[in-house]
Amino acid sequence: MPQNLNVHQPDDRFFKSAMSDPEVVKAYLQHFYPNIAAIADLASLKLENSVSLRPNLKRFEADVIYRCRFQGEADDHFYFCLLFEHKSKPDKYIAVQVGSYIMELLSSMVKKQGRELEPVLPLIFYNGKEKWMPQTLSELFQGHPHYAVLEPYIPNFRFLFQDATRLSPEELLRLDLSYFRSVLMSMAFRHRQHLIFKYLQLIFEGTDGKEKVSAVTTYILGVAERSEEEFLKQIQDTTFTIKPEVMSTLEQILERGRKEGLEKGIEKGIEKGIEKGMDRGVYKNSIFNLLKTAVHFPDWPAKKLADFTELSMEVVATFLSVKSQGDSAVLSRYVRQDLLANIPLSAEDEEKLDRLVVQLAGG
User: Fold this and answer.
1) How high is the pLDDT of residue 37?
2) Whole-angstrom Cα distance, residue 307 to residue 204?
3) What is the pLDDT at residue 74?
4) Across-strand partners of 68?
5) Strand pairing class (160-163; 64-70)
6) What integer pLDDT is reported at residue 1 of this predicted model?
7) Would you call 165 helix, strand, or coil by DSSP?
8) Looking at residue 72, what is its pLDDT?
């Protein structure tokens, strides 16, 4: 599966970013849990800092936590907490994890003088490929031989659970045009990639503002099973009102990714060469062999060049990327300062290198 953009945990990052917007949370509750939305003063939604709940316990960090006043209640005691936890894979012990969050929140309330306990509602959003229904604490113990006797004493709670992967396009399309719909469609189609591209126009139509366009673009790139070129072509072939903004954002993201990849490719490729047992002399010869081969066979793909020169794909792909710019000064600097860094070059080597760089840049 080609991974176009090296985004660590794209689902978690996108979910936390989106759910940090009270308007998205408001729409989420109104759509999935209208009975809860009806008793809540959604204008009072306030994002809480989960890290501050217990800074000395690093493992305790729920994805998103909100507090919200009940409708018609001005007294601060009447609040409830919405605890959102995102999962992209089934988690057998989610009840233990979320249970610890709930107890920690309640414990923090107890420690604050004059504050009454507030209900904590655990919402779980899932967009994994496998079908999953989270088990409650009670269900985890159902196989115990003495469950019938112990069951009344086992702490238990239920989840407000949503499996986005099972949402149909028809249901999603019934939603009003909004960033909530864009987020939900993007994440719901995570494992139905053809639908992301089928409804690309509708997904982006709900992204108002550069920050939201960037968030959706980065997420789709991070999870897409298509190459960057295919994604770029798909957008070029799609007509929608904010297409210029999306194209500009995409190009900026890809350029940033190429720069990061260039740096990492150089480091990783040289490391791999050393791992293979290449000494500096052999490595230098392999680089010169790469340059000469690229001059004589300009149409060879990276894989063929890598096999022929016995250099890593990272080194060859990065070299071809720099070469494609057609700038001899840039190519010369890259070869000397990156590919051949700390490799002694003789006067003959220098002359040969200059000649090859001119030929490569000219080609």
Assistant:
1) 93
2) 41
3) 66
4) 80
5) unpaired
6) 37
7) helix
8) 81
Residue 181 is predicted with a pLDDT of: 95
Question: Among 254, 251, 255, which residue's Cα sits nearest to residue 236?
Answer: 251
What pLDDT is stored for residue 275 in this prediction? 45
Angle between helices 280-296 and 313-323 (to 10 degrees): 50
Question: Encoding tokens for residue 58?
Answer: 């690093």
Place of tokens 């409804």: 199
Number of alpha helices (DSSP H) and beta strands (DSSP E) in the chain: 18, 5
Which pLDDT belongs to residue 274? 46
The candidate with the shortest Cα–Cα distance to 231, out of 208, 209, 204, is 204
Q: Are 268 and 312 a contacting pair, CB within 8 Å?
A: yes
Compute the Cα dihedral for 306, 307, 308, 310 and give only its sign. positive
Alpha-carbon distance 101 to 200, whole Å?
Answer: 36
User: For residues 96 and 112, is the Cβ–Cβ distance under 8 A?
Assistant: no
- Report which of 363, 353, 227 is spatially closest to residue 299, judged by C-alpha positions: 363
Residue with tokens 């610890």: 100
Q: What tokens does 201 get?
A: 């126009």
Using one digit for the tens of pLDDT, what is the confidence trace for 23-70? Answer: 999 999 999 999 999 999 999 998 886 544 444 444 445 678 888 888
Query: Which tokens in the block code for residue 117?
Result: 């306990």
Tell me the torsion sign for CA atoms 148, 149, 150, 156: positive
Residue pair 319/330 in contact (Cβ under 8 Å)? The answer is no
Q: Rounded distance, CA 156 to CA 200, Å?
A: 41
CA 127 – CA 31 distance, rounded (Å):
17
**The one-letter amino acid at 252:** Q
For every residue of 170-231, DSSP letters joined together read: HHHHTSPSSHHHHHHHHHHTTT-HHHHHHTHHHHHHT--SHHHHHHHHHHHHHH-SS-HHHH
DSSP state of 324: T
User: Which parts of the chain register pLDDT below 50?
Assistant: 1-5, 51-60, 76-78, 274-277
At residue 8, the pLDDT reads 57
What is the per-residue pLDDT for 242? 64
Characterize the bridge pairing of strands 120-126 and 160-163.
parallel
The reported pLDDT for the residue numbered 161 is: 93
Q: Which of 107, 91, 82 is nearest to 22 (CA)?
A: 82
Strands annotated E in 63-198: 64-70, 79-87, 120-126, 160-163
